[in-house]
Write a structure and sequence with these properties.
With 201 residues, the protein is an alpha/beta fold. It has a single domain (4-194), classed as 3-Layer(aba) Sandwich (Rossmann fold). It has helices at residues 15-26, 34-45, 50-55, 59-62, 70-79, 83-97, 110-114, 128-139, 148-164, 186-200, and strands at residues 4-8, 29-32, 103-107, 120-125, 177-180. The protein has a five-stranded parallel beta sheet with strand order 2-3-1-4-5, sandwiched between helices. The structure holds cytidine-5'-monophosphate. One of its GO terms (biological process) is pyrimidine nucleotide metabolic process. It is found in: Cytoplasm. Keywords: ATP-binding, Cytoplasm, Kinase, Nucleotide-binding, Transferase. This is Cytidylate kinase.
């Protein structure tokens, strides 16, 4: 069975949690496409040119444990605006989306560019403040001096760059189901996503 669930939305809205839960529930494979850009950004921070970094990406890069920091997120969003970087990562994502057995991909351009014919498209959002609180909770363990306001400023800068770029900007596909998780517990958000996928299967 070929079946793709495309999940897009801004940082820390809950895409990853929903994607993982859907994959587990339906037995689909999951690809966090942000990791591809983070791993590319990480290689650029280590001195490689952006397009070469994307072309040379290997499984080891994706397994690095230092990809979740704010600095890497910023580097990811910078390389993600380069059309040739996106082109280098395109085929892998398209093939993953149409693999046998079903796939869930989360990112910014899955429903618009990577898999415009995805059987289910979700666009997951939440208020800036709620997203900053969530991301702060994740990052503060590694960096106790980090404030919610700093995280909020970083998220806003990154979202603005992701939405304004010419190459595959972050936006909801016309046929995406909008899921606002500002005041929705994660279980409830997952339940809505499971229902949407179950109806389309
Ligand atoms: O989702 P995550 O925060 O890990 O993504 C890091 C960055 O990678 C995003 O800010 C965005 O610039 C880029 N990205 C993208 N397209 C995707 C996934 C991520 O441009 N499909």
């Amino acid at each position: 069975m070929i079946f793709t669930v495309a999940i897009d939305g801004p940082a820390a809205a809950g895409k990853g949690t929903i994607a993982k839960a859907l994959a587990a529930h339906f037995g689909f494979a999951h690809l966090d496409t942000g990791l591809l850009y983070r791993a590319t950004g990480r290689r650029v921070m280590d001195g490689e040119a952006p397009v070469a970094a994307a072309e040379n990406l290997a499984a080891d890069d994706l397994a690095r444990t230092d990809l979740r920091t704010g600095d890497v997120g910023k580097a990811a969003s910078e390389v993600a605006a380069v059309p040739e970087v996106r082109a280098a990562l395109l085929q892998f994502q398209k093939a993953f989306a149409r693999r046998e057995g079903g796939a869930v991909l989360d990112g910014r351009d899955i429903g618009t560019v990577i898999c415009p014919k995805a059987e289910v498209k979700l666009f997951v959002t939440a208020s800036d403040e709620r997203r900053a609180q969530r991301r702060h909770r994740e990052l503060v363990q590694a960096d106790p001096s980090l404030t919610v306001d700093q995280v909020l400023a970083d998220l806003k800068e990154r979202d603005a760059r992701d939405a304004a770029r010419d190459a595959a900007p972050m936006k909801a596909a016309d046929d995406a189901l909008l899921l606002d998780t500002t005041d929705l517990a994660i279980d409830a958000a997952v339940a809505q996503a499971v229902e949407a996928v179950g109806k389309a299967l």
